Every structure is written in C-alpha cells, then in structure tokens.
Amino acid sequence: MNKRMNIKVLGSGCANCKKLEALTVKVVSELGLDAQIDHVTAVVDIMKYSVMSTPGLVINEKVVSAGRIPSEAEIRDWLKG
After folding, report:
1. pTM of the entire structure?
2. Quick one: CA dihedral 81, 68, 37, 29, positive or negative?
3. CB neighbour class for 37 (10 Å; exposed up to 12, middle 13-18, buried from 19)
4. For residues 49 and 10, is the Cβ–Cβ distance under 8 A?
5. What is the CATH class of 5-80?
6. Tens digits of per-residue pLDDT, 1-34?
7. Are 13 and 41 in contact (CB under 8 A)?
8. Where are the domains of the chain?
9. 63 by DSSP, 3-state: which?
10. How far apart are CA 16 and CA 68, in angstroms?
C-alpha cells in the first residue's frame, strides 16, 4: 500500500505559482496518485525550505524545483520517482 504523497507549492500566489500548482494537480490526476497538495504562501514557511526564489515545488519534504516552472514531464518524473 502506497503512502500518501505530500506536495507543496511554495509561492506568494503569483501567476507562476498558480501555474505550477495547476500543472502539479493535472499530473497528479493523470497519474492517479494519492496526494495532498498544499500552497504555502507565508514567507517564513517558504524560507524553511531554503528556497530563495519562487515558485518552488516540494515533494515529501524534498525541494525538487525552485525559481522556475518545470515541465509536465519533469513533474511526472519526480512524482513517479
């Protein structure tokens, strides 16, 4: 039985952050994964991940991307990881 994935999108809620969140939701849905996706907007919480530029993507507490919008293929690979 697979453990539920914990995914966090780090960012203030800007257009790029929203785009990354939408892409992540799309890929999670396509892969049929059991995942909780949270959008972390508080700067103090974002800083806990040592991310200096947003948007950031965290999967199971591991930062996989920061400062850019990764492609769907990249997100898919990280989620399958």
Report:
1. 0.94
2. negative
3. middle
4. yes
5. alpha beta
6. 458 999 999 999 899 999 999 999 999 999 999 9
7. yes
8. 5-80
9. strand
10. 8
Per-residue pLDDT tens over the stretch 32-44: 999 999 999 999 9
Token pair recorded at residue 63: 């930062």
Catalytic residue among 6, 13, 14, 47: 14
Q: What angle do CA 12, 35, 6 make, to 5 degrees?
A: 60
Query: Out of 7, 10, 17, 40, which one is annotated catalytic?
Result: 17
The yes-or-no answer on residue 6 being catalytic is no
* Tokens encoding 26: 């799309």
CA distances from 33 to 12, 28, 38, 68, 70 (A): 26, 5, 15, 23, 19
Annotated catalytic residue 14: yes
